[in-house]
Design a protein that fits this description.
By secondary structure, the protein is mainly α. It contains five helices and two strands. It has a two-stranded antiparallel ribbon.
């Protein structure tokens, strides 16, 4: 998976249901007037999340409170600051 940019758009290059749904989300963000910086931040945040769940759609569908706590703990272990963790959670 990688990020690609074209003109004023940012997307995730890859295959699968997660990538498809994420790219639709990014398109909706652009249509609603989110800044390009915001969309780029969302793209990066979701890519990191997809890597964490190993791009597994079934894991995404069954994501639990425990999974959320585990993901937050892994971001803290990576050394991310609270603002960065919150930014990814908002996405």
């Amino acid at each position: 998976m990688k990020i690609w940019s074209y003109s004023q758009s940012h997307r995730i290059d890859g295959e699968g249901k997660l990538v498809e749904k994420a790219n639709k989300f990014f398109e909706a963000c652009e249509v609603h007037g989110n800044s390009m910086d915001s969309v780029r931040t969302y793209v990066f945040g979701l890519m990191r999340f997809f890597h964490w769940i190993k791009s597994d759609w079934t894991k995404f569908e069954k994501f639990t409170q425990k999974d959320l706590q585990d993901w937050m703990a892994s971001m803290k272990k990576e050394g991310l600051k609270p603002n960065s963790i919150n930014q990814r959670l908002n996405c």
